[in-house]
Amino acid sequence: MLLPFFPFFYISLDLLIYIGTKVRVYTQVGKTSQGKFALDVGVKSLDLFKDYFATPYPLPKLDMIAIPDFAAGAMENYGLVTYRESALLYDEQLSSASNKQQVAITVAHELAHQWFGNLVTMEWWTHLWLNEGFASWVSYLAVESIFPEWNNWTQFLDETTSGLRLDALAESHPIEVDVNHASEIDAIFDSISYDKGASVIRMLQSYLGAERFQKALASYIKKYAYSNAKTEDLWAVLEEETGEPVKDLMTTWTKQQGYPVIYAKLNGQDLELEQAQFLSDGSSGPGMWIVPMTACCGSYDLNKKFLLKGKTDTMHIKDFAASQSGQNFWIKLNIDQNGFYRVKYDDELAAGLENAIKAKKLSLMDMIGIVEDSYALSVACKQTLTSLLRLLNAYRHESDYTVLSHVTSVCLSVNKISTDANPDLSSDIKQLLIKLLLLAAKRVGWDPKDGESHLDVMLRSLLLIALVKLGHDETIKEGIRRFHIFLEDRKTPLLPPDNRKAAYLAVMRTVSTSNRTGYDVLLKIYKETSEAQEKSRILGSLSSCPDKDIVVQALNLMLTDEVRNQDAFYVLGGISLEGREAAWAWLKDNWDHVVKTWPSSSLISDFVNSTVSPFTSEEKAAEVSEFFATRVKPSFERALKQSLERVRISARWIDSIKSEPSLAQTVQQLLLQEF
After folding, report:
1. What is the pLDDT of residues 4-22, one digit of tens each?
2. PANTHER family from the entry (predicted)?
């Protein structure tokens, strides 16, 4: 990638010497101090990777540079890694905890590329995942070591969830995808290459064991240093070092798209298992996998590990479950979500797991896996929204950020679909979802507390944003109150960086064409600040207004010099549910200009996905298809097909929800429960 020229000077931080290697961060003048955190993470990551790969960083220097105009998040140029400012700079006073975490992950990811990508380079684009999947996986390894209090491996399930959701589309693609033309390359820089790639690596490491896997990986790096490698080369080294059938196992995961759902059913003393390819449209594809299965019963001390090699298998549980009975009986498959698959339990097993969640018997990773699987199965109409709401209710006393980040994501998705599926009931569902999150939100409150953890700081932001989006009046009013104090004193402790997004969203809830004060004030702050992270917070808020005309104004802002082209996706990602029709009309009116201004296929894909995917009817899918019939290009064709598929999946889910006879009764029962 060519590095463009920018007409300003950079100033270097004080450099650190790492075993004879100069490590430096370059920033704009005046932002030197904001590069120190990344510098520290970079030095520690190099040290960790040297030991893990048993190969030192080979160059005499490593420079990292923060660039205001940079479309990619970062680029791993050998010895000179380029970043967006928001991906490299961190300011204790101006940046949020989530910004800090993202900087650490991004730096570790790019420095991992110095081994996976630069020292050993993929043979062809088909093997892109050898670069991106491994860099993603090993970045969590590094950050977990540097910041163990962040519980980073549990947060890795965010990546797995992203991969699972994309790979459940018929319009997904295999990890190893044939690339025959340059125009096809950008399209595979997606959650399959990154997130699914990283997740199947984690699955393989779990199957082989961490120590054996590390030693074999180090052998691979040494063997292919300063040369090219393909996926089969990695499997060959791993097989040679471990004696395990790695190629046969992993080929089923990298050469075919998708993944299985494992149906688990109790039959007397047996647990019957059956796999089928999971698709969000409710169908089953032809895929078949060798699945590394793990299971525990009533305790993590009682566990089993085996390979599911065919369509069906039976696990005998008589001795396995002998000590468990009644509400203490539960079986959890896919321990700690190490496997890249979903599980559909029969009613008895599902009830046992719900009790285990309430009794806090499960690991954080398994709590996440259960709610994510249940949500995905509901979307695919393989279980009811009614049962999903009952399951969500089991998390009502949860206080851990890593779990609640997934619970809130599901709650917000349920709120959106219920608005279209059942308008008469949607208000009650919204109140139920607010009630589920309110207990944890009241515990963390708005104000930082002495000695609170990094994850509690992130939890506060997460819950406040969710409650604003769900329309919780008290949270919205408090956000607006603190915002007005912030306008008088930008350093007020009443609105630290972590809470600003919630306050900005609250302000935009009250903006209308006749009262646009909040929009104008936020836009003024945006223009005044030079901090990339603050700019992104504001851009993601401006388009969240329920007023359609204001949404259009926010979109029009992208067409001006006020917004860098690279930052358009912040505006697109904030579009309110009420503004989706206006956003779609805007895209049609401005399509020719958009294509000309944002020629990158990844950015065009953002426009398509953000404006099309929120719709939920077959009629709208047909309208979108008609518009793009003469406009689609190979560079964003896959993104368009995936977006249309999501629309049709939502339409099918809505039809299913409308036919649920006990949904209203269940919602009322849950609303009446004492928390």
Report:
1. 333 333 445 545 555 578 9
2. AMINOPEPTIDASE M1-B, PROTEASE M1 ZINC METALLOPROTEASE
132 is in an annotated binding site: yes
Residue 484 annotated as binding?
no
Exposed / middle / buried, residue 576 (Cβ in 10 Å: 0-12, 13-18, 19+): buried
Pairing of the two strands 16-18 and 21-28: antiparallel
| Distance in angstroms (rounded) separating the CA atoms of residues 513 and 346 | 51
- pTM, to two decimals: 0.95
Phi, psi of 227 (to 5 degrees): -150, -175
Tokens of 653: 């889910």
Distances (CA, A) of 555 to 301, 550, 579, 599: 54, 9, 11, 18
What percent of the chain has pLDDT above 70? 95
Q: Rounded to whole angstroms, how far apart are CA atoms 248 and 237? A: 14
Q: How confident is the model at residue 603 (pLDDT cuts 50, 70, 90)?
A: confident
The 3-state secondary structure of 349-414, one letter per residue: HHHHHHHHHHCCCCCHHHHHHHHHHHHHHHHCCCCCHHHHHHHHHCCCCCCCHHHHHHHHHHHHHH
- Please indicate if the annotation marks 354 as binding a ligand: no
623 is catalytic: no
Domain residue ranges in the chain: 10-254, 260-369
65: helix, strand or coil: strand
* Matching CATH number, 260-369, of 3.60.60.10, 2.60.40.1910, 3.30.450.20, 3.40.50.1820: 2.60.40.1910
The per-type count for the chain, helices as H runs and strands as E runs, is 27, 16
Rounded to an integer, what distance in angstroms lies between the CA atom of residue 399 and that of residue 449? Answer: 16
Give 10-254's CATH code, choosing from 3.40.50.300, 3.20.20.140, 3.40.1190.20, 1.10.390.10: 1.10.390.10
Q: Single out the catalytic residue among 76, 85, 110, 144.
A: 110
